[in-house]
Amino acid sequence: MKEPSLETIELEMAILFRRMTSITNKKRFGNLDRSAYLLLHQISSHGSAGVKTLADEFHLDISTVSRQAAALEAKGYVYRIPDPSDGRAYSLQITELGARELLEYKEARLARFTELLKHWSEEECSAFGQLLQKFNRTFLEPEGTPKRDNGGGS
Q1: 37 and 102 in contact (C-beta within 8 Å)?
Q2: pLDDT tens for residues 76-117?
Q3: Residue 91 backbone dihedrals phi, psi, to 5 degrees
Q4: CB proximity list for 73: less than 8 A, separation 6 or greater
Q5: What's the whole-model pTM score?
Q6: What are the chain's domains?
């Protein structure tokens, strides 16, 4: 990759992070924060999951996810399902309240992105989504591993 391309990406990412932080601090989308949204989304999309599985998925410490899960449980967004083979282990399942909060939060975020991208074509939105997805996957691959390119799709 050429230096000017890297410099553009680096600068635009810094601007994006600054603007996203600014928007998030000024305007909340409901009762969820980003970590709650992502955990609830993961559980809702992929079914009940243990704290270790969630920590692995998001590349976080188990203690961090455990703290976040406890906050979700205290709000009534998730409940524990005991593991019959290990009395200490449990999985988290989303509650009806958690599903409603997740849907409300997601709809508010989608409305915001609809407004931000209203002048973009469907092709531009599709390409941007595919490139963001590809970029996010690069964080999951060990350094030095050749990057797989599956055509930008999912």
Answers
A1: yes
A2: 999 999 988 877 889 999 999 999 999 999 998 899 889 999
A3: -115, 160
A4: 79, 80, 92
A5: 0.79
A6: 28-138 (1.10.10.10)
